[in-house]
């Protein structure tokens, strides 16, 4: 499927849907979610930013099936993807990388408070979130075999965060990338820029036609390549500044990329700080 500028409920493969949202600007800026039907099973991928938006996602699911969600996969621990968990669980069993459970158990309530302080004007019901942590966790790779449908959960290593999960349907050549793909939206780097580049290269080697991003419109490998080039060029310029002994603040002022025209360029200082920390760690 070619990329296109469409929001709402979109069937991306037989009995597999994306829900492309505009909660965070610009239009189609996400956070996104999705769901897959496998016989009597309903597998939901992310639960959106609040209980209210979780209910909106549930409404999209009810347009397709009257079956209750069986599994909810959290692609990472960020609140815009997990604060709707309480809408689905119970009855759904929540599955995620082990780091997601660790983060939500130890920091979940603080995350809710932080999101509420920053985004209460945009999403007033964040304050009503009850943190529901994953019930089943995995470390590297997990495969769900559900009524003849194969759903693979792949942890690409530390990338956008330390607990990312990509959800792969090999028979459909379909990937729910979570926040491994910000489609033409400037990426916030919390985990590792080098690891994120490696994660994209892993996807590029896979048999995939359609990618559902965590933020932005439905994509394919071209958009993944655009993000990879953004990360490579950002890392290269920041590394040059680091090697010159410049501060991260000075490096941020010197970065010059065409990708700074993407929405949410205010995330650049975070990326520079993260890359500086990576390079400091590499020096030992």
Task: Characterize this entry briefly.
The protein is an alpha/beta fold.
Can you tell me about this structure?
- The chain has 284 residues and is of the alpha/beta class.
- The protein has one domain (8-283): Metallo-beta-lactamase, Chain A.
- Helices cover 35% and strands 23% of the residues.
- The chain has eight helices and twelve strands.
- It has helices spanning 51-62, 79-82, 85-88, 98-119, 193-204, 221-243, 248-254, 268-283; strands at residues 8-13, 16-20, 33-38, 41-45, 71-73, 93-97, 136-138, 141-146, 149-154, 166-169, 174-182, 210-215.
- The strands form two sheets. It has a seven-stranded mixed beta sheet. A five-stranded mixed beta sheet has the order 8-9-10-11-12, covered by helices on one side.
- β1 (8-13) and β2 form a beta hairpin.
- The chain is globular and about 60 Å long.
- The mean pLDDT is 96.
Task: Order the strands across the largest sheet as they lie in space.
Answer: 1-2-3-4-5-6-7
Major beta sheet summary: 7 strands, mixed
> Any idea what the CATH superfamily is called?
Ribonuclease Z/Hydroxyacylglutathione hydrolase-like
Give the rounded overall mean pLDDT: 96
SSE layout and pairing:
Layout lengths: L7 E6 L2 E5 L12 E6 L2 E5 L5 H12 L8 E3 L5 H4 L2 H4 L4 E5 H22 L16 E3 L2 E6 L2 E6 L11 E4 L4 E9 L10 H12 L5 E6 L5 H23 L4 H7 L13 H16 L1
Parallel strand pairs: 4-5, 5-6, 6-7, 11-12
Antiparallel strand pairs: 1-2, 2-3, 3-4, 8-9, 9-10, 10-11
Helix pairs in contact: 5-6, 6-7, 6-8, 7-8
